[in-house]
């Protein structure tokens, strides 16, 4: 019987060293939640006038057909909402509680009892804002508010109701409340800029809901810049008033001269 030496078996599996290498994040498959997030950014960009209706429709169609995270990012690469805040090199985390004296009395109360109350747009945010939702809903939108103080407290009380707090994405935010058979959720924000405002959300959700989240693409402007802008506008109004008074006096003098000439 002729026995021949057979070659040692070889591993037919491909080299696993390259296969085990993790893919970069941009090559990962995107989820429906990823598509919804990008679609929300595009919808906000359309409402803000950054995209035309045709551009919005074209990009949404591409988002629905996208398969990877990188393909999704390409549709919002030129939008502010996709640009995250950039922390400074010497960064100090904001405190969890106010470090300055804030009055216990609210500068503004927003109350909804079996109803809805909304505070949004261009408004001046005080140092303390109280929101009460009793079988109702309250929305406190600070994304376009004027921040005159570096630390702001929002006290939210929800009893069988809903309180929504929205802030610009480049401020700091901390939450110290809780829920009793309810939901109290604050998305912590860290601006990275020591001069940026800090919003402290406190309160309770009793069989209700309290949420505080940033609005993507909304940035708070520099406080000093806004103060100087208001001063400039005030000076412009004063100058306009002086000019109007001078014109009025000239017209009155011309009228008197005309009447004298006509013997009236």
Automatic annotation (TrEMBL):
<feature type="domain" description="Cell wall-active antibiotics response LiaF-like C-terminal">
    <location>
        <begin position="127"/>
        <end position="186"/>
    </location>
</feature>
<feature type="region of interest" description="Disordered">
    <location>
        <begin position="81"/>
        <end position="101"/>
    </location>
</feature>
<dbReference type="InterPro" id="IPR012551">
    <property type="entry name" value="DUF1707_SHOCT-like"/>
</dbReference>
<feature type="region of interest" description="Disordered">
    <location>
        <begin position="1"/>
        <end position="32"/>
    </location>
</feature>
<dbReference type="Pfam" id="PF08044">
    <property type="entry name" value="DUF1707"/>
</dbReference>
<feature type="domain" description="DUF1707">
    <location>
        <begin position="28"/>
        <end position="80"/>
    </location>
</feature>
<dbReference type="Pfam" id="PF09922">
    <property type="entry name" value="LiaF-like_C"/>
</dbReference>
<protein>
    <submittedName>
        <fullName>DUF1707 and DUF2154 domain-containing protein</fullName>
    </submittedName>
</protein>
<dbReference type="InterPro" id="IPR024425">
    <property type="entry name" value="LiaF-like_C"/>
</dbReference>
């Amino acid at each position: 019987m002729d026995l021949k030496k057979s070659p040692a078996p070889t591993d037919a599996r491909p080299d696993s060293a390259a296969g085990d290498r993790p893919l970069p994040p941009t090559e990962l498959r995107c989820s429906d939640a990823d598509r919804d997030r990008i679609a929300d950014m595009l919808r906000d960009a359309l409402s803000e006038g950054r995209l035309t209706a045709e551009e919005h429709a074209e990009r949404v169609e591409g988002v629905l057909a996208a398969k990877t995270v990188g393909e999704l990012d390409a549709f919002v690469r030129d939008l502010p909402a996709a640009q995250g805040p950039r922390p400074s090199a010497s960064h100090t985390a904001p405190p969890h509680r106010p470090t300055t004296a804030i009055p216990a009395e609210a500068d503004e109360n927003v109350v909804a009892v079996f109803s809805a109350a909304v505070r949004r747009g261009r408004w001046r945010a005080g140092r303390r804002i109280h929101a009460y939702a009793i079988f109702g809903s309250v929305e406190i939108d600070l994304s376009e508010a004027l921040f005159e103080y570096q630390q702001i407290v929002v006290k939210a009380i929800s009893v069988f109701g809903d309180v929504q707090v929205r802030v610009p994405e480049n401020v700091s935010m901390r939450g110290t409340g809780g829920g009793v058979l309810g939901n109290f959720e604050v998305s912590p924000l860290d601006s990275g800029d020591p001069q940026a405002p800090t919003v402290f959300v406190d309160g309770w959700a009793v069989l209700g809901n309290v949420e505080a989240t940033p609005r993507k693409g909304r940035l708070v402007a520099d406080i000093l810049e806004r103060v100087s802008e208001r001063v400039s506008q005030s000076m412009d109004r004063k100058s306009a008033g002086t000019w109007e008074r001078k014109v009025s006096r000239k017209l009155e003098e011309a009228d008197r001269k005309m009447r004298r000439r006509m013997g009236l």
